[in-house]
Write a structure and sequence with these properties.
266 residues; alpha/beta; four-stranded parallel beta sheet; three-stranded antiparallel beta sheet; 7 strands
């Protein structure tokens, strides 16, 4: 019994020595490589870092050939698809500021949360054309994308969606997408039962402000998310198909960065 314990103890000592030797070899032979890798990573991180000059642009370097990626080019001028600054707006939810409700509104809030799974009551207070904060890195504003990009069909699947959340999504796409790149917005109804998603939605989609780009497609029975997305794809006629959730809002200059790698690959 004592011999077994002695052998076990010797084995533990041997394993400890092996581990120590391996750690020593790693630190000696690989530390320089790891340090160089960290330095390269740091340099890449700082590749697009710059200080703004008084004119609001990037440094005056020749960036046309030095900074290019997937068909996009980083320059010292505002990007060719960059939208003008958003006009100031006031109202609930503008610029992503939280909307606070009163105590006497609690019952209405709770009712909508039970019905939709989120605070539809507050959503109905917010403008369909509200401003949202620009969460991009500042260097995003100086990327230039190809002038010729494929036209896109945006497909949105919904079932018993709230009115304001669904339409705010549509408005954000219309407001923040270059019109020459937006072929159509297809709203695919997976057999909703709510009244506001029937004739009222059909009439709203036909409003002149949407320029015949918003179309409503309806399933004859519940199909589920994937089949409904496929139905939207079969109906779409754009060069690129892009699916969005029903209750979201697109950000500023959101589409050209997505289309550029596709255009380059073609």
């Amino acid at each position: 019994m004592a011999r077994v314990r002695l052998k076990h103890r010797r084995l533990c000592y041997l394993l400890t020595i092996v581990i120590v030797v391996l750690l020593f070899v790693r630190n000696v032979f690989f530390s320089n490589d790891l340090g160089a890798a960290d330095a390269n990573k740091h340099n890449r991180k700082n590749t697009y870092r710059y200080d703004f000059n008084e004119g609001g642009g990037a440094p005056g370097h020749d960036l046309n050939t030095k900074y290019s990626q997937n068909g996009a080019v980083f320059k010292d001028t505002i990007g060719n698809y960059e939208p003008p600054p958003q006009a100031p707006r006031e109202g609930p939810g503008e610029n992503g500021v939280p909307v606070k409700t009163l105590h006497e509104e609690k019952a209405a809030v709770d009712e909508k949360i039970i019905e939709y799974g989120f605070n539809q009551y507050v959503s109905d207070k917010i403008s369909l054309d509200r401003n949202i904060p620009d969460l991009r890195n500042e260097q995003c504003k100086f990327w230039h994308y190809p002038e010729k990009l494929p036209k896109t069909s945006v497909i949105i699947v919904f079932h018993n969606e709230g009115w304001s959340t669904l339409l705010r999504n549509v408005h954000s796409i219309m407001n923040r997408t270059p019109p020459e790149l937006l072929h159509e917005i297809i709203l695919v109804d997976d057999f909703s039962t709510k009244d506001h998603l029937k004739q009222r939605l059909d009439d709203y989609a036909r409003l002149p402000k949407f320029q015949n780009k918003v179309k409503v497609l309806r399933n004859e029975r519940r199909e589920g998310l994937i089949r409904t997305r496929i139905n939207g794809a079969k109906y779409a006629s754009g060069e690129v198909l892009l699916w969005l959730d029903a209750h979201c809002e697109v950000g500023l200059n959101w589409l050209p960065p997505l289309l550029t790698p596709i255009a380059k690959n073609r």
